């Protein structure tokens, strides 16, 4: 990434702390300082991109490289029950045990 151009205002550490709080990140001061520099360079680069003349360039919503080939949907033998349950962290009544999330009345 190119260095920040002269005269560009870097992002302040308190702004990085605020962004970290919004993202529920508890970052040490050293990481805040590092990210302040990194984000300042990113924002400076975006400012450079904003200066480009894009007259006559059509906007692109997305890039599609064509359809991905799909395999044939053919039936196969199922995984044996014992093998399927072998790596499960918890089993119950011959099946996978999962935490309950629906309260019954």
Structure description:
With 105 residues, the protein is mostly helical. 36% of the residues lie in helices and 4% in strands. The protein has a two-stranded antiparallel ribbon. The N and C termini lie far apart (58 Å).
Summarize the topology.
Blueprint: H1 13-22, H2 29-50, H3 81-86, E1 91-92, E2 95-96
Antiparallel strand pairs: 1-2
**Cα-atom Rg, whole angstroms?**
26 Å
Strand content: under 5%
Structural class: mainly alpha
Number of strands: 2
Provide a brief overview of the structure.
The chain is mainly alpha-helical.
Descriptive keywords:
2 strands, 4% strand, mainly alpha, two-stranded antiparallel ribbon
């Amino acid at each position: 990434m190119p260095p920040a151009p002269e005269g560009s205002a870097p992002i302040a550490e308190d702004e990085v702390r605020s962004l970290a709080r919004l993202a529920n990140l508890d970052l040490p001061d050293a990481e805040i300082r590092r990210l302040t520099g990194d984000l300042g360079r990113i924002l400076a680069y975006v400012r450079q991109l904003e200066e480009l003349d894009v007259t006559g360039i059509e906007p692109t919503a997305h890039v599609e490289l064509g359809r991905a080939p799909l395999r044939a949907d053919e039936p196969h033998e199922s995984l044996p029950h014992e093998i399927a349950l072998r790596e499960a962290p918890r089993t119950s009544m011959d099946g996978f045990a999962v935490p309950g999330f629906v309260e019954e009345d």
